[in-house]
Amino acid sequence: MKHTLITITILLFAHFSYAQLSSRDAGQSNRPTTADNLGMNKPAGVVVTFLKAPYLLYTGENDQMLVLWQMGATQNCLLEWGTDLNYSDGSVTTEEYGEDHQHQVALTGLCPNVKYYYKVSTTDENIKQGSFVAGAQDSDRTISFYAYGDTRTYPANHDMVAAQILQDMSQHPETQTFIISTGDFVANGDREKDWTDQFFDPQYTSLQKMLSELPYMAAVGNHEGQGLLFRKYFPYPRFVSDRYYFSFDYGPAHFMVIDQFTSYAVGSDQYNWLVNDLEATNKDWKFILLHEPGWTAGGVHPNNPEVQEIIQPLCETYGVQIVLTGHNHYYARAVVDGVMHITTGGGGAPLYTPNPFEEKIVTVNKSNHYCKIEIDTDTLSFSAITKDGDLIEGFQLFLSPNNISDKFEEDLFKVYASHRLIKVSNDSFVKGQLSVYDNYGRLVFRDGFVNKEHQVGVDNGGVYFVRIDFEGERVVKKVFVK
After folding, report:
1. pTM above the 0.85 mark?
2. 3-state secondary structure of 205
3. How does residue 411 score in pLDDT terms, banded at 50, 70 and 90?
4. How confident is the model at residue 25 (pLDDT cuts 50, 70, 90)?
């Protein structure tokens, strides 16, 4: 006779603990079904509330997922999960850990790329539900994910950004993977009230739904303060040396999360870890995630020199394509020696005014927004999108420049290459400014834009970016000169 088992191992760490389960081994036969079994025999009418509804963290293993929540008082809970709303894969009764009524469960033995549903309950009337898709296969070549940052201070704005992400995800189910944050969750990360009011407040329904459906992968920002509450609510199991840097793989991509408040100077522990990590990965696409940008569009915070002097050379040496940052509250893109430096600080914080003429800057936009990154084998498509669903800009990167197309684009402006000439048609005689940058972010041409056609001669073949500023708008296009 075959028996179905539930295996529960409690893992204790210096700062957190969680229950680790195998969803392949867990079954319904051992499932508690009554309030008494859960220790819920409280006086009638007494329901312990969820202070922080269930949210998700990715462990870096494609057959695992962390589910976390916090109650308002001591209360056992029932977590159930499965590939449909019958939650038939398994269940576990959880007990709090720590000193603040927190619960955490690591689901293991999941099937990569499979969607799971889960619910956490204390009574039949006190239930929270969510879903997730287990991580991509290591061999997968196609993935999508989201990125943004600086969600502090104005949770209503953050909620609108989350609503737009959810809408996009509903139209494109393949994007239910994970979301990256560049830090600065709340105004004062050392104060519990800010986490409760600005990030986990249940009145912001879109935000809470997003957290329950997209694992949250984040860098620590300056507003996280000492980082103790950041660690309390985001206890990533891959933290290195008890600090806030780590890395993980997802399909064809490798992600390195930098802790800028721990030394990463040449020769430091974090620097040595980063070099070893970059040398060890065999993934085609590489991302570095940190908070303070090396090249940004001014406004409030200056460029971070350590990113320029330490991170950028490593990007060039090891082929990191994109550095995702925040800190300044707007969208900006700089191109430096072929590396894209994205400032995505429009998650909800008070917006700053970017300067489009800062060094290496190609595009700026003052808005609450998020980014969407889609990888399909040797092509990466990047979109920056406002909370209202408007496209700020889109661009593509390619593992081989030979894959870049120089075909016409059928819209207001047509940009194409002929021999060593970049040609820009302006059939509507729009008045503005034309700028051309090479793939290293260097300005090679700038002049007024008014004629029906402009021709810009270049000395070398390769990738160029054509920027047209007109009537308060900006268009940026990529062209390949053979």
Report:
1. no
2. helix
3. low
4. very low
Residues 24-33: contacts with CB under 8 Å, at least 24 apart: 24/89, 24/109, 25/90, 25/109, 26/89, 26/90, 26/91, 26/92, 27/89, 27/90, 28/4, 28/88, 28/90, 28/91, 29/4, 30/4, 30/5, 30/6, 30/91, 31/80, 31/91, 32/78, 32/91, 32/93
Domain spans of the chain? Answer: 8-133, 142-399, 414-481
| The predicted structure's pLDDT at residue 112 | 98
Q: In sequence order, what are the residues at sequence separation of 6 or more whose Cβ sits closer than 8 angstroms to the Cβ of residue 60?
A: 237, 238, 246, 247, 248, 249
pLDDT confidence of residue 19: 43
Specify the pLDDT at position 123: 86
User: How is 324-371 classified by DSSP, letter by letter?
Assistant: EE-SSSSEEEEEETTEEEEEE--SSSPP----TTSTTEEEEE-S-EEE
Can you give the pLDDT at residue 203? Answer: 97
Q: Any idea which residue has 């040396």 for tokens?
A: 241
When computed from its CA atoms, the radius of gyration of the chain, rounded to whole angstroms, is 24
CATH code for the domain defined by 142-399: 3.60.21.10
pLDDT at 272 over 70: yes
Same fold, 142-399 and 414-481: no
Q: Which one-letter amino acid corresponds to residue 443?
A: L
Q: How far, rounded to the nearest angstrom, does the alpha carbon of residue 8 sit from its chain's CA centroid? A: 31
Q: Are 47 and 125 in contact (CB under 8 A)?
A: yes
User: What is the DSSP-derived secondary structure letter of residue 29?
Assistant: G
**Burial status of residue 337 (CB atoms within 10 A of its CB: 0-12, 13-18, 19 or more):** middle
Cα 211 to the center of its chain, rounded Å: 12
So what's the pLDDT on residue 450? 79
Q: Which two tokens stand for residue 185?
A: 């969750």
At the top level of CATH, which class does the domain 8-133 belong to? Answer: mainly beta
Query: 374: closest CA among 172, 159, 129, 116?
Result: 172
Q: Give strand pairing partners of 417.
A: 422
Give the C-alpha separation, 187 to 150, whole Å.
9
CA pair distance 434, 466, nearest whole angstrom:
7
Q: Provide the pLDDT for residue 403.
A: 41
**pLDDT 10s digits, 413-463:** 888 888 889 998 887 778 888 989 887 677 889 988 878 888 999 988 888
Measure CA 231 to chain center: 18
Which of 3.30.70.1530, 2.60.40.1930, 2.60.40.3080, 3.40.190.10 would CATH assign to domain 414-481? Answer: 2.60.40.3080
